[in-house]
Write a structure and sequence with these properties.
Keywords: Coiled coil. This protein has 13 helices and six strands. It has a two-stranded antiparallel sheet with strand order 1-2. Strands 3-4 form a two-stranded antiparallel ribbon. Strands 5-6 form a two-stranded parallel ribbon. Helix 8 runs parallel beside helix 10. By secondary structure, it is mostly helical.
Length: 448
Amino acid sequence: MADTDPAGPVMDRDEVDRALARLGQEHEAIETSLLALQDHAGRRLLEGARLTGVTAERWTSTEAAITLLWTYFDAYTDVLRTAREIRARRRWSSREDLAELTELLRGEPVTVAGSAAATANAATPQGGRAGPGVLSERWSLSALVDRMNELYAASLDMVVAADAVWSALPARIDLLSAELQRTSRLAHSVGVRPGEHPAGDDLERITRTLKKLREQVVSDPLAFWKPAEGSSAPGGGKPDTTVYDREARALEDVRREIDAVLAVRQDAEKRIVRLRDVLSRADRTLAEARTARGEVLAKIAATEVPVVSGPPTALQEQLSTAAEYRRHAQWHRLSPLLESLEQKAEDELLRARESLTAVTAPLAVRAELRGRLDAYKAKVSRHGLAEDPLLVERYEKARRMLWSAPCDLRAAEQAVLRYQQAAVELLGAAPGGPGQGAGPDERRGPGT
């Protein structure tokens, strides 16, 4: 072969030996990689699985690519074996042998049928040199190695991605499903059921979603794969756990709800007893207020007395409903009812106390006036002024008003004030008295 051959200048023996050594190393490395791919657990799973969606489409192409890889490798092996046999003919290769070796090692000695690569070429960004209608494709050994590396990387990427999803998600889904079953049994035991409680509906929805998710993950794992941005390495990325994480959070919310229901079951009796006590106190306070109102109307004149409402019958009925829920273990219904009742019962007790205070306010005013009148009488007695005619007259008048029924509080207040003013004047004028100025207690007006 002349030096102007397309394969280039004829290689010498050293160049041939170096090229055969390099190609031998590449052959060994490629064979090792192909055998590892052949034995890869992900590839075996893909081969036996019922695939759907994007995984089914990509596996069809990947299977064809792997088949083509072996076809390329066998052709590569044949050329390498032929070159080694030619080199082994003689210790010192002839010019004709070197020319033939140059053609094998630098030319395009590999021919592959075009139909064998048609499907596999669609799986990778760059196809081979055979297009539609082309009967065969020709390759140099170096170009064939590049093409095998390309097909191998694409095939491995698909296999590793599917295997990563299968290794991560189904097991996690199964664990979550087992936890879901335990939670569902617990929920059923406390009355949290679909159609009766929102948490029961959530459990039913989570069950459906996890079942569908597992079926999709098993049949179409690549639908749950997120490739790493900017990464060209095979298998660069991670499983997409968005749906799984959402359902895991939803199940955790349901567990918290059931824990709250369980807490209600544990202390329901104590809470119901407490509610009965609060409502009983509210009822007694209202009864006391009604009795006091009748007393005020009989003893105090010209006073508007607030009307006292009846007992909290609506709350009593709700409390009976709560007790019924407890007897029938309807904890999911008892929980919100008790929370509502506890607040309403406290409000009712506060309202009853305020009503009693408002009703008895006139009696408190009368008692305060009686106390003030007696306090000033004791004070003037200590100064020897108890027999003063003006003081005696004003005291008796105020006393008759305060100790008679019905009592006119406004007139009684004025009578006490007049007695107080007279006492202050006499105490200020008396020898050794407290002086001309009256203290704060002596100057205060009625109602203060």
